[in-house]
Design brief:
By secondary structure, this protein is mainly alpha-helical. 85% of the residues lie in helices and 0% in strands.
């Protein structure tokens, strides 16, 4: 009887497995919707829209809510996506050029680029959850993201580390990263968003309670 109860719809096991499936399915949806590049911001904000509901244990239809948020956030996310792509392109070009340079100042500039990368990653860790949760102008979203990143330092460090883990892993050991590449492609984004949402949920709840 106890074995049968394990697979009941309201059992702890079933609830955990349902949430795991939802996270993996959200990861796949987000990866597929990022392919056009111009929809990266929409895809990530939709991912956090649903993920924040999941970590609150709210009743939600994953696919329907994802594409509902996708439709609502598409226009708002376009400028954010363009900013993300420009920053990524500039930093990628800089790292490539500096990697081939023999200049004495290259290491200093390289360090500056790393600082910029970390700062951008920290701010963008909040940008997409803010877009998912609140309606605001692009400027205000970035201002609020920067303010949250600076005022919640330890949470920011953890989320930035989570978001940059694939890049760091690839740079440290491309061979081992290649071994789990496809697993990370179809599960990594959902896992990252889930961990981040657990942290961001508490920040948002505290801010909303204060207001």
């Amino acid at each position: 009887m106890a074995f049968k109860d394990t697979f009941r719809g309201d059992s702890a096991y079933s609830q955990i497995m349902t949430k795991v499936f939802d996270i993996l399915w959200l990861s796949i949806l987000s990866i597929l919707c990022c392919i056009p590049l111009i929809t990266i911001g929409t895809s990530l904000s939709s991912l956090y829209y649903v993920m924040l509901k999941l970590v609150r244990d709210e009743e939600t239809t994953v696919t329907r809510n994802y594409f509902k948020a996708f439709k609502q956030n598409f226009l708002q996310s376009l400028p954010v996506t363009m900013i993300l792509l420009v920053i990524t392109g500039i930093l990628a070009a800089d790292f490539h050029i500096l990697g081939q340079s023999d200049s004495q100042n290259a290491s200093v500039i390289y360090g500056c680029c790393i600082v910029i990368l970390l700062a951008a990653a920290a701010v963008f860790s909040y940008v997409f959850p803010l877009m998912a949760r609140y309606q605001n102008t692009t400027r205000k979203i970035f201002e609020n993201a920067a303010r949250l990143a600076a005022s919640h330092l330890w949470q920011t460090i953890v989320m930035t580390a989570v978001n940059l883990l694939p890049l760091g892993w690839f740079l440290i050991s491309a061979e081992t990263f290649a071994a789990i590449f496809w697993i990370w492609i179809f599960a990594g984004m959902g896992i990252q968003a889930f961990i981040n949402s657990l942290i961001i949920r508490k920040i948002f709840d505290r801010l909303e309670a204060e207001k």
